[in-house]
Amino acid sequence: MTDGHTERMDDAGLEGLFAAARDDAPVPSGDFMARLTEQALAEMPVAGAQVPEPRPGLWAQLWPALGGWRGLSGLVTACAVGVWLGISPPAAMTTGLGLDDLWGRNADLGEMGVDPLSGFELALLEG
Prior knowledge:
The structure is a single chain. By secondary structure, the chain is mainly alpha-helical. It has 8 helices and no strands. It starts with 10 loop residues before the first helix and ends with a helix.
């Protein structure tokens, strides 16, 4: 394992070896450095064009505002029932509740017996 080389090196000998190593420092050639720089610049990422995020459309904004599919289905149902009752109201609704005076031809204030100034008479008299 050990060889018979027992020669010891002193500090002056070591300093001479270190000085020789410093003098012979390897320097890359200019051609190598130019190729290395060219390859490094070719591999650098290039920033792309900034594309703004598209804004949501009208339906995409209205959908959550109306409560999603549950809210919109209730709104559509109520609208359909309102149109249906407006076009052809049931007979029990007009005759049974006495609403034919309000919706029919007899919708005059005199026949209903309503005085439009009944709540304001005292205020008008005081001046």
